[in-house]
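REQUEST
  id: r-88c1
  op: predict_structure
  target: ATPase
  payload:
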Amino acid sequence: MYVSTFQDVVEWTRTLHEHMAHCLKHCSTQQDEERAKWLLTYLADHEAALEKVVAGFEKQADPKALNTWLYDYISYQPIKPHQLCNAPYAEMSFDEICQEIFDLHNQVIDFYRYLEGRTEIPETRELIGELLKLEHHEAMRLAHQTSRTRDL
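RESPONSE
  id: r-88c1
  status: 200
  body:
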């Protein structure tokens, strides 16, 4: 997906979470380790919920912010998770899945921080700030939940 406006950023984020939800759910049916299977199911549900929340940003955000062009974006490489879900999570351990998901969310957070530092219009700064808060909060929540599961 080519990202040229903040609308594209929101759509890219929504699509990323949607893709991850489908992939994680697909992999959960092929995972042999029970704890990892539970984790994949939980993560799939979490990503699906995030996809819906981000879709809400598209509907509620200021059109001025959404239609703003990203001029400095070209120097940043967007995150590209595997495009086809060829069951990589089905072959990973619980800890490997956690690491992969945390890395992905940290890349999204870094991307938002990058954009937040380069936006000059208050409406776009607010939009990116809200997305950043959402992603950061959800990453912390995932870390907390997986930590609790690891203790079981």
